[in-house]
Amino acid sequence: MLTFTIRRLVLAVPTLLFISLVIFGLLQLAPGDPMAQVPLTVPPEVKEKMRQALGLGDAWYIQYWKWIVQFFWVEPKVLVDWIFGTSFSEGQLRVLSWQTRSPVMDIVIQRLPQTLWVVGTAYLVAVLIALPIGVYSAYRQYSIFDNVGTFVSMIGFSVPPFFSGVLMIVIFAVNLGWFPSIYDTTHKVNDWQSFMVQINQMILPVMVLALQITAQIARFMRASMLDNLNQDYVRTARAKGLGEKTVVLSHVLRNSMIPVVTVIALGIPQIFGGAIITEQVFKVNGIGQLLITAIQANDLPMVQTLTFIFAVLIVVFNLIADVLYGILDPRIRYD
């Protein structure tokens, strides 16, 4: 397993480099000019000097190489300096946002807690709800609970977040007035009362994200349970006189979790993508809204960095899913 993990990590390096090159190339081909939002009163020669200062006068391969060095060499040294109080990155140019002229990673770190509050909570709630629903639906196949759960899961999986988010706002924020429709990013949690305010404003965006995740995981859990309930080892366990609870929870559930854990691990990067729309609907000042704002402002360094971070998450969690699959299933060996 260790050899497999090291081999996959080594293979991930050229994979990520190729992905970064593709992202850079696509953004270079995209229409738009970072100087488009500069006031018309600015003389053309000043705009040209501004373009040169941003590095737009260099060839594409030079721009790409500068970004690679800054992202893979300078930014890790900045992280080391922040942790250990050293000065390895002092005086070195970092990846700067064209819109704010600030380091991109500093802005990402500032926005990340808001996204993690919503995305992390939504994923945890979805998993805790989906697993019992999937198990009970499979055990009571074709029952009223199973039919209702299947119907709700299909709706949750089919309805996009931009529709369900607006629907939640209309019902629970406008008509009932139970929850706020806009997420207050400036709110700080200092005591129990402020914590409850934070939970209250998180309910709607968490419900929107958790609905889609719950539907997906519950369907996988149900299908995996149904596949294992008819296996020979289940009949053998029952024939030995084991209780139904022991058979279902200790034998069937354990084997059914193997593919479901893989789905859960692979779904984490997807939820960050889904949060982009949800953050726009509820005005959550997180990573998703930052990406949309950067696209609208044609802030290529910000868009490129955020898109590459999403790609890194996909590669990392693919590796985690493969490792977990090998740990949970003794029949899988990566020798």
Automatic annotation (TrEMBL):
Coiled-coil ranges (or none): none
The organism's place on the tree of life at top rank: Bacteria
GO terms under biological process: transmembrane transport
Keyword Membrane: yes
Principal subcellular localization: membrane
Transmembrane segments: 115-139, 151-179, 199-218, 257-277, 308-328
Keywords: Cell membrane, Membrane, Transmembrane, Transmembrane helix, Transport
Cell location: Cell membrane
InterPro entries cross-referenced by the UniProt entry: BPD_transp_1_N, MetI-like, MetI-like_sf
Membrane topology: Multi-pass membrane protein
UniProt xrefs under CDD domains: TM_PBP2
Pfam families membership: BPD_transp_1, BPD_transp_1_N
Family affiliation: Belongs to the binding-protein-dependent transport system permease family.
Name by which UniProt lists this protein: ABC transporter substrate-binding protein
Lineage, uppermost ranks: Bacteria, Pseudomonadati, Pseudomonadota, Alphaproteobacteria, Rhodobacterales
